[in-house]
Specification:
single chain, alpha/beta, 6-stranded mixed sheet, two-stranded antiparallel sheet, 10 strands, globular, binds guanosine-5'-monophosphate
Length: 189
């Protein structure tokens, strides 16, 4: 997606440890016209899949899931990272390793919100080593739901998550694919 790649080139910042910061337009402050274009592009890609629900994980996946859901006109479910008193205990849960924080967390989705009748589109902001996506796929598997595919805003294809998940037979569509970001220079596929 040209618009997204141009914006990443202009405003993305490369940090140590292969981390790309997009805080000025996607992850902290959000450019709404870009967000809308991202939602529309996911809709164009998965329009013929009869999606019933979009699944993501809090926090940074939520805006993109919601932007897409407005076009699909389906609910968004986001996996929660903390057990809170208002979260029903009847949950699907999975342990996920966090790329950005270096720790593990438990992602939970109330079992009432995903079922075997669902055809799910999983959406997330980044795909790096694939732990977050694998966790969300696992939650869908626990629910017996079908996964139509995964929509990723930015894939760092020099990390092996994308290859691993595609090799497992899952459709993954990434709007921007970064093949390298050595010495601060971002190169797209
Ligand atoms: P993975 O589980 O594929 O290793 O990493 C995906 C998750 O880590 C995403 O949900 C995203 O929030 C975070 N992440 C991974 N790489 C980056 C990055 O370069 N920049 C930012 N801002 N987040 C990242």
């Amino acid at each position: 997606m040209r618009l997204l790649e141009e914006r990443i080139k202009k405003d993305g910042q490369v940090y140590e440890g292969n981390v790309l910061k997009v805080n000025s337009f996607l992850n902290h402050q959000i450019d709404i016209s870009l967000l809308k274009a991202i939602g529309e592009e996911f809709y164009r890609l998965f329009d013929n899949e009869k999606i019933t629900k979009i699944l993501t994980v809090e926090t940074s996946g939520i805006p993109f899931a919601v932007a897409a859901a407005l076009f699909f006109d389906v609910p968004v479910v986001f996996a929660k990272k903390h057990q809170t008193s208002n979260l029903n205990t009847d949950c699907y849960s999975v342990n996920i390793h966090s790329f950005t924080h270096g720790n593990d967390y438990q992602a939970r989705v109330e079992s009432a919100f995903i079922s075997a009748e669902d055809n799910i589109l999983i959406i997330d902001d980044f795909l790096a080593s694939g732990h977050a996506l694998k966790g969300l796929l696992n939650i869908c598997e626990q629910a017996g739901a079908h996964v139509a595919g995964c929509g990723i805003v930015i894939e760092k294809s020099f990390q092996d998550g994308g290859r691993m998940i595609r090799d497992a037979g899952v459709r993954v569509e990434s709007l921007a694919k970064i093949k390298s970001m050595e010495n601060g220079e971002i190169i797209f596929e």
